[in-house]
Structure formats: C-alpha cells, structure tokens
Write a structure and sequence with these properties.
Blueprint lengths: L1 E11 L7 E12 L12 E5 L12 E5 L14 E3 L6 E3 L8 H29 L24 H36 L5 H30 L1 H5 L5 H8 L13 H17 L8 H12 L9 E2 L2 E2 L1 H25 L8 H27 L7 H19 L1 H6 L5 H5 L1 H12 L3 H6 L5 H4 L10 H9 L28 H5 L2
Antiparallel strand pairs: 1-2, 3-4, 5-6, 7-8
Helix pairs in contact: 1-2, 1-3, 2-3, 2-9, 2-10, 3-5, 3-6, 3-9, 6-7, 6-8, 6-9, 8-9, 9-10, 10-13
C-alpha cells in the first residue's frame, strides 16, 4: 500500500560542514505495507487514534517512521525537485500551489454544507408546518384551530433565515466549484495568478459556511421543541456527525488569519498603486473603496418599505473593504502585533466571506432569472433579501461603523425582516421540497415528505423499538408477572 507522506526535506548545507538545511515540507510516495502480507514494513508503525466526536466512519490513524529510507525518485517533483548535479532545490511555479488539494477539499466542504443544512431545514420546516400549538391570543372565536407552529414569528425567525441561507450556500458552492476548475485550467497553463484569491476565498468560506451549518442544525433541532430532542427528529445524528467540520481542514478561527493576511497584502498594493490594472474582483473593490472613501455616503438598504437589492450588495462590499483598510492601517502603518489583531482579523474574514455569499447570491439570481418559471424568481429574491437583511441586522454595528449603511435604514431592518418572513412563509414547504431529499436520507419521522409525522413517530417508538418487544417484572424475588390487558396492548393499539 502506497501513501503520500508530507515530510520536512533536509539537504546538505552549502558550507560543507556536515550540517543540513531545512528547505521546507515536501511530498513523497512511500510504501507503507508489504504487498503480500499487508503488514507494516520495517521501521514503520501505524495505528488508530481511537474514537472521536463525530465522523465515526473515518478511521483516522497515526504513523511513525524510524530510519525509513526512500529513493530520491519518491519525491513528487512537478513543482519542486532536487538537482542530480548540484543537490540544490529547484522550484517551479508559485509556492502556494501546495495549497491546491487543500483548496479543493475546502471547496467540497462548502458544497457539502448546503446539503447538510438543507436536510436540517427540511425536517424543521415540514414538522413546524404540521405541528399545531395554542390558539391565537387575539382570536375571538372559540372554534378556531390551534395555530401551526410555523406561523409564530418566534419560530420563523429561527428557521426561515436558515432556509434562505441554504440557497446562499448553494449558489456560492456552485460558484466555488466553477472557480476552482477555471483556476485549475489557468494554473495548468503556467499562470498562477488566481491561486492566492482562490485559496483566500475557500479558506474564509469554509470557516463561515461550516459555522452557519453547524449552528443551524442545532437551531432547527431546538425550534422543534421536545420532539426535536428525540431520535425520531433525525437531527441528533446529523448534529453529531457534522460538528467535526468546523475543525477539519483548518480550525475555523485559525484559518481566518490566512484570509486576513491576503486582504492586508491586497490593500497594501492598492494603496501603493491605486491606478494599477485590477487582477481580480478584490482589486476592483479595494480601488473603488480608496477612490470613494473620503466622500462616502451611507446607503439606504430599506427606505419607506422598499428594499434595494443593489444597495444590499454595496453595503456588504463596502464593509469588507473598510475593515480591510482598518486592518491595513493597524498592521502595516501602525505596526501593531499580529496576535493583538487576531480578533479583528477574524471579524474581517467573516465580513469578506459574507460579501462573497451576498454578491454571489445576487449575481446568480440575475443570471438564472430568465430560466426560472412562475413565481420562482420572486421567491428566491425574497430568500436573498431575507438572508442579507438578517445578516445585516445581526452585525448592524459594523455596517454603521464603516459608513456602509445608514442608521435609519438599520433601524428599519426588524420590520423589513418580519415582512419578508410573512412573504416567504407560504412557500417554505415547497422550497424545502425543491431539494428533493429522499426520506431514507433524512431518516426522520418529523420530516417525512408525506406529512405522516405522528404515525411514523409512534411506529419508530413502539413497533421498531426493540426495548418494547419484552415486558417483564424487574423484581428478581418474584415470579414473572406481566401487568396490563394481557394482549400486549393490541386492544389499545387498534384504537389508534
């Protein structure tokens, strides 16, 4: 069995004193096990690291090497090689190309986040659209039915923004998938220009999207009350399985430093040469910011009950650019220690990633509107507005601090969000049905597509529960006594 091993490469020092220079990590193809016996080769020890929280199906392990020799030809040498003549390291292309596979995996994680959150939201929307609890307090008719749980604003504010978020993640995941493959084609031709932007975007979005999904699953579970606590909800397993994602492929807080470092570098270049030809959307944004920041007028996202979609995009982009400039000032101009700036840099990464989500959502709707029929474009537009305004309201102080959004507009957000939720409520079930997630994948009594929630819930709790197959007296001092009707509850069950 062969493995790709990442190891530090040591080369003889140029001074010839018998010492070695560390030229950094490189990748090697190493045979780990014997081809016939499958036992680890001499000098190699492998083992399992034991159980962990979530992702139980992945058998992560460890590997130890003790004087394990591999030939020079084992080193992967597409972008770096050791010269046979001089013994020196020769590099080809951009050093950041080593992030290629990591960037791809992070892109896949973004795509996966939309599906997992869609599963949780599907269960929550379907159940809360069936579950009834309490009559309207203002009702004057004693014969009125109890209200559906989904009609309560306190439930809507937890679930419907997450429903909108699933579509934001969907369009962004599609964009990252396309961007990766386009960048890959460019890199294959020897142009490594898009690599840094791709790595920065994938790092920031991985952090944000996995956080939104992990928190969203738990929010959906709690919104379903006591039944959400039970195994029949289908969210207990999803919750445990997904909670590894904010950690794998880069801890969600630590990798935001990579995003911030890239943005500070970009802003530094823009300040030094504001008239340079932009290489990517970030360059365009920063140049626009620098040319307009001295006479910026904060935008009215909501004015007299009217929502401006372009203003939504503008305020998210302006906030990201302004926070990037503040980080540049703190780090480059004022020379503040990096460690002291970490919280500020995390905030910057999140703002940058949120503007990618909002911008991509908006652009995707404009591109696909003509191919969608009926009320679908308008409903998706409502989703875009709800996700954007809900996010804006949650971080309102940063939008006013950066002069992105007008204060009067921010004060109008709560009412605008309520109106959007009322507008989206009649379409909620159809929107989750549009994901076409099969019942076997949901594995949830509460989220069944046919609406038979309580029949399935009881069937799971009674007939399919092995603990209910045996009834016995736990008192060891007495003979076996079965209390009840004597027919194992058949008479009672027949009435249900």
């Amino acid at each position: 069995m062969l493995q790709i091993v990442v190891a530090q490469l040591l080369l003889p020092a140029k001074n010839g004193a018998g010492s070695y220079d560390n030229v950094g990590p490189q990748t090697f193809i190493v045979q780990i096990r014997h081809a016939d016996t499958h036992q680890p080769l001499d000098g190699i020890a492998v083992g399992d690291i034991g159980p962990k929280y979530g992702y139980a199906s992945m058998d992560n392990g460890y590997m130890l090497f003790n004087h394990c020799r591999v030939p020079k030809s084992a080193m992967l040498s597409r972008y770096a090689e050791v010269s046979d003549e001089t013994g020196a390291m020769n590099r080809h292309g951009h050093p950041a190309v080593v992030y290629g596979s990591l960037t791809f995996v992070r892109g896949q994680i973004i795509m996966h986040a939309r599906l997992v959150l869609a599963r949780a939201v599907t269960v929550a929307v379907r159940y809360c659209a069936i579950r009834r609890q309490f009559r309207d307090r203002d009702s004057t008719n004693d014969g009125d039915e109890e209200m559906k749980v989904m009609d309560y604003p306190t439930v809507q504010i937890r679930i419907l923004p997450l429903l909108a978020t699933t579509f934001a993640l969907h369009y962004t995941g599609e964009m990252m998938h396309t961007l990766y493959h386009k960048s890959r084609e460019t890199i294959e031709k020897g142009d490594f220009g898009p690599l840094a932007e791709l790595h920065s975007a994938s790092s920031g979005l991985k952090s944000l999207c996995t956080m939104l999904t992990a928190d969203g699953i738990e929010t959906c579970r709690r919104a379903m009350g006591g039944h959400g606590f039970g195994g029949g909800s289908g969210l207990v397993g999803i919750n445990a399985d997904y909670l590894s994602k904010p950690t794998v492929e880069g801890d969600n807080w630590m990798i935001t430093q990579q995003v911030a470092a890239h943005l500070i570098k970009k802003m530094t270049a823009a300040v030094k040469n504001p008239s340079a030809a932009p290489q990517d959307p970030t360059d365009e944004l920063f140049q626009y910011y620098l040319n307009n920041r001295d006479h910026r007028i904060s935008q009215n996202v909501v004015c007299a009950g009217t929502i401006s979609d372009q203003s939504i995009v503008d305020v998210f982009q302006w906030r990201a650019a302004d926070l990037s400039y503040r980080a540049y000032q703190a780090r480059v101009v004022e020379k503040k220690p990096w460690t002291r700036l970490m919280i500020q840099l995390h905030t910057l990464s999140r703002a940058y990633s949120e503007q990618i989500l909002v911008t991509t959502f908006h652009n995707s709707l404009n591109e696909t509107a003509s191919s969608l029929s009926g009320p679908t474009p308008d409903v998706l537009r409502t989703c875009f507005r709800l996700y954007s305004l809900y996010t804006l309201d949650a971080f309102a102080s940063s939008f006013t601090m950066t002069i992105a959004a007008a204060e009067d507009s921010v004060h109008a957000l709560p009412d605008a969000i309520l109106d959007l939720m009322m507008e989206l409520r009649p379409h909620a079930v159809k929107l989750v049905d549009a994901w076409s997630i099969p019942d076997w994948l949901l594995e949830s009594a509460l989220g069944r597509s046919d609406g038979k929630v309580y029949e399935e819930l009881f069937d799971m709790a009674h007939r399919r529960n092995p603990l209910n197959k045996t009834t016995f007296n736990p008192d060891y001092r007495s003979e076996e006594i079965v209390k009840g009707s004597g027919d194992k509850g058949d008479a009672i069950l027949a009435k249900l």
